[in-house]
């Protein structure tokens, strides 16, 4: 009988310790990426060659509005859209593509999108081919206030 009491006590302690503590997993969600606002181009790459110094992109301003419209001004270079219109992300939390539809157009122009944070500031990297698939442009834009 002396042997049964300690074994019974150990079994009770094991059961309580295994089932007494619940591990709760906190559901985390990815924050919505903030692309609304004013953007300017900081670098242009064509076919893996940096052409920033040779293109006139300094004046280009892209504004993404809350109502999913966009305006583009001083655009002297190939871009996903060359006229004002509407924009759309494929997924607000995990965006991989951004679509631009110029006003009076029936088709959407889709570009690859990434959103790295560099030195505490969100960047927008848009990759697309304007008409000719052998030319691949990569535009890096930064938010301006």
The domain count comes to 1
Estimate the helix proportion, in percent. Answer: 10-25%
Q: Could you give the order of strands across the largest sheet?
A: 1-3-4-5-6-7-9-10
Query: How would a textbook summarize the main sheet?
Result: 8 strands, antiparallel, barrel
Radius of gyration: 26 Å
What number is the mean pLDDT? 85
Q: SSE order in H/E notation?
A: HEEEEEEEEEE
Strand content: 35-45%
Query: Class by helix and strand content?
Result: mainly beta
Give the CA-CA distance, first to last residue.
81 Å
Q: Looking at CATH, which topology would you report?
A: Lipocalin
CATH class: Mainly Beta
Helices, by number, come to: 1
Low-confidence parts: none
Q: How is this structure best described in words?
A:
By secondary structure, the chain is mainly beta. The chain has one domain: Lipocalin, CATH 2.40.128. 11% of the residues lie in helices and 39% in strands. It is built from 1 helix and 10 strands, in the order H-E-E-E-E-E-E-E-E-E-E. The chain has one helix spanning 4-19, and strands at 37-46, 49-50, 61-64, 69-73, 85-89, 97-102, 109-114, 117-118, 121-128, 137-144. An 8-stranded antiparallel barrel has the order 1-3-4-5-6-7-9-10. Strand 3 and strand 4 (69-73) form a beta hairpin. The longest helix is centred in the N-terminal third of the chain and has 16 residues, at 4-19. The mean pLDDT is 85.
């Amino acid at each position: 009988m002396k042997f049964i009491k300690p074994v019974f006590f150990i079994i009770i302690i094991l059961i309580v310790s295994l089932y007494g503590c619940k591990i709760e997993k906190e559901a985390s969600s990815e924050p919505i990426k903030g692309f609304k606002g004013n953007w300017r181009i900081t670098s242009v790459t064509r076919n893996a060659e940096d052409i920033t110094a040779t293109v006139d992109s300094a004046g280009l301003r892209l504004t993404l509005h809350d109502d999913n419209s966009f305006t583009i001004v001083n655009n002297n270079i190939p871009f996903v859209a060359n006229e004002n219109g509407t924009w759309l992300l494929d997924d607000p939390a995990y965006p991989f593509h951004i679509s631009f539809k110029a006003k009076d157009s029936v088709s959407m122009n889709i570009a690859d999108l990434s959103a790295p944070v560099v030195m505490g500031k969100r960047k927008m990297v848009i990759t697309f081919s304007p008409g000719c698939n052998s030319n691949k442009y990569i535009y890096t834009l930064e938010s301006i206030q």
